[in-house]
């Protein structure tokens, strides 16, 4: 009789397998280093896709098996597609990951001066523990679009020669009344998340200029980057942890880095689709935005973009036979992996987990049948038949996998993009990696799991259900 037993994937690996894992994770760390924002991830993904023969969808009047095409949505979504042997109308294999991560966004009118220091106001994006972002080096990334339409890209704080930015925390000698009596969520309040951007006053001929440090900073920004204070209102600027991804532990079995939720799934699904030949069914790698704030907006999965690009694919194959019902039929016959991370069993806080149903680092891909909170609210609950078919695929390819839930019942919870895929009738389940320190500036993932994700996504693309 078959029993359920998950095993640590590092056991009994051969030297060549360990070498393959290390090589793959070196490339993954590089991706994390250069892709700290959605726009940067899209740019790098397109660069790699074009090197593998992918071309923009507008270059195709019609599509045939083996064609490799991509879509870009407002520089924050990218869709990579390999057309399959079967008609697209018979269904698609979607792997959907998000490329946004918790961070600090710069407010539209951010710079002010206080106590002769120039500060910049922020608004946190996504679920963070605010105190984790103080007294650490931060880098400024993003774009400024001037009134004339000129786009200026910024990345300050990653090069060793660059300055960095930081939020000044309060010293323990003086925090007894101001901070220690606050609860953890308010050790630092939202309006206290302000970075220091300057300290040197500048002499001006005009005596009416009072905030000499602020004006010094604005002068330097204009001289070096050619934009003004008014241009902040049409900017997308964000603060992220400065520095590179690192190996963690004496054995170097863990990757530590910002943004692994969910770029661990984005990178592995990207690599998987770049490495497949003509699949039986059309394969789609869809990298989305705005998951961390509810998948809203025109670049989140609540938009109609999935419907838009799927319709474009069908139109180029069905031609005059295209209609809305053909699109709905295609979506209803499709399968998806909502590739997002799960909470790995934390050895310091095991009490919040149901250990029997918790995922562990080093045990491979995590299949999460449902997420949500308190009674599965706001979750997608995958059908048993679909879960069984995925078990067969992964077992046939000797891919390590495990099950996982996001904590004990009523302990908390969370959601993914799965429910938005399921709205179209797409068979969907969450499938990603176990992560420690999720949503922190330095998240942890097993190198073994990273490589198994890639193998699992590649098998999913190739094997028809």
Question: Can you characterise this structure?
Answer:
The protein is of the alpha/beta class and 465 residues long. Helices cover 26% and strands 24% of the residues. The two termini are 26 Å apart.
Number of helices: 9
Task: Determine the fraction of residues in helical runs and give it as a percent range.
Answer: 25-40%
- Strand percentage, roughly? 15-25%
Strand order of the largest sheet: 1-2-3-13-4-14-20-16-18
Largest sheet: 9 strands, mixed
Number of structural domains: 2
Key terms:
465 residues; alpha/beta; Aminopeptidase; Aminopeptidase i, Domain 2; 2 domains; nine-stranded mixed beta sheet; six-stranded antiparallel beta sheet; 9 helices; 22 strands; 26% helix; 24% strand; globular; metal-binding; hydrolase; metallopeptidase activity; metalloprotease
